[in-house]
Inverse folding.
């Protein structure tokens, strides 16, 4: 069973006549443990696709299936629960809460999900070590560099042990050296934990270092290329 | 913890918002404590007058301060349904004083009838000393406020009635020994001085105009009668029977007196309600404004939390908790300031003061503050909870 499957995914903004079609019937299947880059120009529908896959947005037509579950059949509460347990998010602008420490930011998703808090805290400490910031647990985001903030955001995306991590330009705000470091980190997690990564990026060089490169143009999937390891 | 940090992020705004609640709850506490004081006062009246029948002279009524023959007492006791009846003799404690404006019951001297306590629904108790007896002469039991006002305790002497600075010629008073001090009742007995019926009649005679003194046998006169019914007797009906069977008296229906006290209490309830509305207006608007600003500033945070799995109820709860905390902090500060003011004002009042802070008022003030904060924060919180996560995440 694929980790994620899109069937005829379509999204219109505005009314059918004057509105914009961001996605026009995208079909896609991603297996568990794949590391996939989604590329395309601005307005090609990358972010819209990510929002639909992340259950943040309802498609106008078509289906999103996560581990075989049709997201269209879920109510808002069930979608929130699925997001909480199965999906991790990494954003371009990190989106760490400034009033919280690094540790608290990593633990934030647990506030909205059930589970063993003590085990989660141990996992958060392990993740902090994994992203190389064990000594920054009590730092606030303003006390961290951009790269460090994104590493905290990566740790946060993994705290609930999701099967799918969605990245929206996760390296967009960091320099090349940090970008390499972050990509290496995600890659390692991907290989060690078989977590599926779906990364939206403008950076073709970065996209070339993934398993698979999907290209969108004007809402259509125009290429799906598997890359050599 | 996160809520406190969020509030602390915008210190000035938080302080100003809390100040609004503080002012409102401060007003509620001070006005409410005054209302509580009067409500206790009136409740004492309801308890006492609701379970007894006040009998006065037919021309004056139960509270006229008139005179009636002491022999009437025996006639009242004969009326069917009367379990016991006691004479009532009272004179003002500060006759001729120009200080007539008062928010409470003025100090008064009354007789104490041994045995009446077993019939009265309003129970008095001694903080110190003993009761006066029928045989007592120039001995007095002081109410708590009376004792505090004149700094008297058991064993001290006090001259009664108290000589006012503008005492008229012919003013007479006597040296009484304080033999007991009452526990605080928060109602009329606090400002009383209780003497034997004989002594009360002596003072009654001396309170007459100089021209009448010596021409009237003061020991044959009383101010009124307090009658108690046998168990199960309808006191209103008993008052009617006394009026019908005993000539030249007027017995007041207890239900009428109780209604009078209750309507007095309604005035003070209105005062508290008005203060609450003031709090609602000042505090509520400031919380609404703050929470709208807070939601507007934290749109991305809301989007993020939704992306991380927060449900509508989670976001609603978080913002409501924040608004309620503003209310609680403002409520605690406002209440404490209100208490401090009432304590200070009471301390400066020799009779014990006009303000009474009760646990009920504390609960009302703090509960109202929390409800006010949460209520005012409800609409902004709903707005936050219903926010579309994608729009919220993309907002600048």
């Amino acid at each position: 069973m694929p980790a994620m499957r899109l069937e005829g995914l379509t999204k219109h903004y505005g009314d059918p006549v004057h509105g914009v079609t961001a996605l026009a019937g995208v079909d896609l299947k991603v297996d568990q443990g794949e590391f996939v880059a989604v590329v395309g120009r601005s307005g090609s529908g990358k972010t819209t696709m990510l929002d639909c896959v992340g259950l943040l947005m309802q498609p106008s037509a078509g289906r999103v299936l996560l581990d075989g579950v049709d997201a269209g059949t879920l109510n808002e509460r069930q979608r929130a629960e699925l997001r909480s347990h199965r999906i991790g998010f990494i954003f371009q602008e990190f989106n760490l809460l400034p009033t919280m420490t690094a540790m608290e930011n990593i633990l934030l998703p647990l506030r909205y999900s059930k589970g063993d808090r003590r085990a989660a805290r141990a996992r958060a400490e392990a993740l902090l070590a994994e992203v190389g910031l064990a000594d920054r647990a009590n730092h606030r985001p303003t006390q961290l560099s951009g790269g460090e903030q994104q590493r905290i955001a990566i740790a946060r995306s993994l705290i609930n042990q999701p099967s799918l991590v969605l990245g929206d330009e996760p390296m967009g705000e960091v320099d090349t050296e940090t970008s390499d470091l972050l990509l290496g980190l995600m890659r390692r997690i991907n290989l060690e934990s078989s977590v599926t990564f779906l990364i939206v990026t403008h950076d073709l060089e970065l996209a070339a270092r993934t398993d698979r490169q999907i290209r969108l143009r004007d809402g259509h999937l125009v290429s799906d290329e598997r890359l050599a390891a | 913890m996160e809520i406190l940090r969020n509030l602390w992020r915008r210190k000035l705004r938080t302080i100003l918002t809390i100040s609004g609640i503080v002012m409102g709850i401060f007003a509620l506490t001070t006005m409410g404590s005054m209302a509580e004081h009067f409500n206790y006062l009136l409740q004492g009246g309801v308890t006492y007058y609701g379970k007894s029948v006040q009998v006065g002279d037919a021309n004056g009524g139960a509270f006229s301060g008139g005179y009636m023959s002491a022999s009437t007492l025996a006639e009242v006791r004969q009326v069917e349904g009367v379990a016991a009846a006691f004479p009532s003799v009272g004179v003002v404690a500060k006759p001729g004083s120009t200080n007539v404006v008062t928010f409470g019951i003025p100090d008064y001297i009354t007789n104490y009838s041994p045995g009446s306590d077993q019939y009265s629904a309003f129970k008095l108790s001694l903080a110190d000393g003993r009761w006066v007896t029928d045989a007592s002469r120039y001995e007095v039991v002081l109410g708590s406020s009376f004792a505090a006002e004149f700094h008297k305790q058991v064993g001290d002497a006090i001259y009664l009635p108290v000589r006012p600075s503008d005492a008229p010629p012919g003013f007479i008073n006597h040296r009484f020994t304080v033999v007991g001090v009452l526990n605080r009742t928060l109602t009329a007995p606090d400002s009383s001085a209780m003497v034997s019926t004989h002594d009360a009649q002596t003072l009654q005679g001396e309170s007459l105009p100089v021209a009448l003194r010596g021409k009237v046998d003061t020991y044959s006169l009383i101010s009124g009668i307090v009658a108690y019914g046998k168990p199960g007797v309808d006191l209103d009906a008993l008052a009617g029977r006394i009026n019908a069977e005993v000539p030249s008296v007027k017995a007041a229906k207890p239900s009428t007196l109780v209604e009078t006290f209750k309507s007095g209490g309604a005035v003070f309830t209105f005062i508290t309600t008005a203060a609450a509305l003031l709090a609602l207006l000042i505090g509520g608007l400031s919380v609404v404004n703050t929470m709208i600003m807070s939601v507007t500033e934290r749109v991305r945070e809301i989007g993020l939390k939704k992306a991380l799995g927060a449900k509508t109820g989670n976001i609603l709860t978080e913002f409501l908790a924040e608004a309620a905390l503003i209310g609680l902090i403002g409520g605690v500060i406002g209440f404490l300031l209100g208490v401090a003011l009432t304590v200070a004002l009471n301390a400066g009042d020799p009779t014990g003061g006009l303000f009474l802070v009760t646990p009920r008022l504390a609960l009302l003030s703090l509960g109202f503050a929390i409800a006010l904060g949460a209520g005012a924060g409800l609409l902004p919180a709903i707005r936050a909870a219903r926010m579309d996560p994608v729009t919220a995440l993309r907002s600048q």
In short: Chain A has a mean pLDDT of 91. Chain A is about 30% helix and 25% strand. The longest strand of chain A covers residues 20-30. The interface with chain B takes residues 51, 54, 56-57, 76-77, 80-81, 83-85, 89, 91, 95, 97-100, 104, 108-109, 111-113, 156, 160 of chain A (CB under 8 Å).
